[in-house]
Amino acid sequence: MGSIAGEQTDDIPATKRFYSGGGGSVRGYEFRTLGPLDEDDDPLGGRSVVELGFELRVKVTEDIGVVPFVEGGNVFDDELPDLSQELQWAAGLGFRYYTAVGPLRLDVAVPVNPRSDDIDDAFQFYISLGQAF
Q1: In the prediction, which pLDDT does 105 show?
Q2: Three-state DSSP class for residue 15
Q3: Over 80: is that where the pLDDT of 127 sits?
Q4: Coil, strand, or helix at residue 58?
Q5: Which of 48, 53, 127, 128 could tie 71 with a disulfide, CB 3.0–4.6 Å?
Q6: Taking residues 113-128, what's their average pLDDT?
Q7: Are 28 and 71 within 8 A, CB to CB?
Q8: Is the pLDDT of residue 16 over 70?
Q9: Angle at 93 between CA 91 and CA 99, to 5 degrees
Q10: Using an 8 Å Cβ cutoff, are 85 and 74 in contact?
Q11: CB 20 within 8 Å of CB 102
């Protein structure tokens, strides 16, 4: 959860605003696409954010693991998160191959409540090396 106080969104540089969506926040949605969008569906960022994540890491063998997960969140133009607005939820399954330098991760996620107007894809893939926190 986060908030930027004291300024209107337009007065905050785009690089300092909150964004959500993608591998580091809510898998199942494109990178930074949750929250306010412009007329071309490009993210504008916001002054507050809420993100939730639940995952279960299960080792199947010494080198192989599976990770079911559910994540939700949204970005808001208001100074405080407007919890009357719907959070965007995603669910997925990850696979891990544990190496000496960290796990090789492959995650597949789908939006549970995609937005209208074809903004959200049916699924997202994420490939990375190292532990997610």
Answers
A1: 95
A2: helix
A3: yes
A4: strand
A5: 53
A6: 92
A7: yes
A8: yes
A9: 140
A10: yes
A11: no
Whether residue 133 has pLDDT greater than 60:
no
What is residue 52's three-state secondary structure? strand
Cβ neighbours for 3, distance < 8 A, ≥ 6 positions apart:
47, 48, 49, 79, 80, 81
List the structure tokens of 131: 């532990």
118 pLDDT tier (thresholds 50, 70, 90): confident
Q: How far apart are CA 25 and CA 109, in angstroms?
A: 12
Scanning the structure block, which residue is given the tokens 């964004």?
19
Tell me the β-bridge partners of 74: 50
Residue written as token pair 């919890």: 83
- Is pLDDT at 62 greater than 80 in this prediction? yes
Indicate the helix (H) or strand (E) that contains 76. strand 64-76
